[in-house]
Amino acid sequence: MKDSNFLKEHNARSMWHPMAHPADSLANPPTIVTGAQGVRITDIDGHEVVDAVGGLWNVNLGFSCAPIKAAIAAQLDRLPYYSTFRGTSNDAVIELSEELRRFFAPDGLTRAFYTSGGSDSVETALRLARQYHKIRGQGQRTKFLSLKKGYHGTHFGGASVNGNANFRTAYEPLLAGCHHIPAPYTYRNPFNEADPAKLAQLCLAALEDEIAFQGAGTIAAFIMEPVLGAGGVIPPHESFMPGVREICTRHGILLIADEVITAFGRTGSWSGSRHWGVQPDFMCTAKAITNGYFPFGAVMIAEEVAQVFEADTSGAAAIGHGYTYSGHPVGAAAALACLAETERLNVPENAAARGAQLFEGLQALAEKYDIIGDVRGGHGLMCALELVSDRAKKTPIDKKTIGTVQEVAYRAGAMVRVSGPNIIMSPPLILTADDVQIILSALDEGFAAL
Length: 450
Known about the structure:
Blueprint: H1 4-9, H2 22-27, E1 33-37, E2 40-43, E3 48-51, H3 54-57, H4 66-78, H5 91-103, E4 109-115, H6 118-135, E5 143-147, H7 156-161, E6 178-181, H8 196-214, E7 219-224, H9 240-251, E8 254-258, H10 272-275, E9 282-285, E10 297-302, H11 303-310, H12 329-345, H13 347-368, E11 372-376, E12 383-390, E13 395-396, H14 399-411, E14 414-415, E15 417-419, E16 422-425, H15 433-448
Parallel strand pairs: 3-14, 5-6, 5-7, 7-8, 8-9
Antiparallel strand pairs: 1-2, 2-3, 4-10, 9-10, 11-12, 12-13, 12-16, 15-16
Helix pairs in contact: 4-12, 5-12, 8-9, 13-15, 14-15
């Protein structure tokens, strides 16, 4: 490895960082992480902190999961790569497909289409949704509905159904036929409604209205996160996703659950859809499927949808879509080991307990600091603080102030993520009670420094 001086000097000189202004990365050098163990990361200066970001929502089992590392190494020796395009397959991906079928059986999902990550999974689900309707002779069903504040990756399809202007404006015009309804976001919504149950009904009514306006027969699918993640951790009322499922079923619209973040235990349930008692038609997964150790994803497909494709005799169901690394054997081996360890540890149980502890601690911080306008969480290990300069007016905080909180918290022992006015936390699901206290204490120091 090059020495620390070289790395610091060249950090952003020849590299553009995702989700950042290139000039900002030069002016404010990013933290250089050089090591990790358990739930902690170590930077180039030897400073160790609890990683309250969990890599990027994906290192559910921490950074020291030996079974996954061993599976990757063994698979590299045995078969480092082969394509799964028509005519070839590999043993690891066949075994994984059976394990995922078993794991997702309560969600009604029985087939897997493999991808390289979350954005790929969303793109795949959108494409297959359109193709499904074409096979059934309803080719006019091409539109997509989604939630404002929702996040669905960065491909053109995903950006088009995204509900955040930050991921859209610079790249427009986007995919035609994508329409958005208000999110069940109690802190800010066009209805000025703070009651979660009432807001859920208003958003469902808005969905019905949009379907009537567009024409149900023109809509392919509705895509949503069971708990909105990157948009600021926005959990809907328990009635919302079941209401969406009922409306979609009634109008012949497919429901795509974007579970790139929520699958495999983060919500305190094995999947976000299961958390709300809903069976989707497609489920997008990635991130925690390999604990972040290998870029890999899978779109899980409902039995009823699979039957439409597999019963086709016209040729319309031939899938003209896929990736070089779809079903990568090393990724499949990593996913097999990760799934086994995830189940062995029963991570939803700890995610629920530690998530409740973190949420309670964040609420206590909100009582102490007026800069905290809203605390969101209560469903596993995904929480957010929305910061404001004026609590009564809900005026969003400026970038410098929230940056100070993050920087001081990091020095005090915890890495947290900033997104707009939000501080977002998505730590590994193996977090201990002591780790939670470190995160809360670090944030306390961050706010006290203002």
